[in-house]
């Protein structure tokens, strides 16, 4: 399954100009990555675009899937 199908990404935020390559905002430290928009990043100063590379988007998807699996496993335990 492609990353785009695993996490909801877009090549650009709706209604905004965006560079297609640039620094990934997550873990890898790439400075010239092909960027995917994951969604709004809410900050006290305003809303920024969360722009990440495909590898970091995949890592984030795995972390989210693990969290959901743990939640489902906890919910299945009889009390
Ligand atoms: Zn990255």
Automatic annotation (TrEMBL):
Chain spans, region Disordered: 1-20
Protein name per its UniProtKB record: Uncharacterized protein
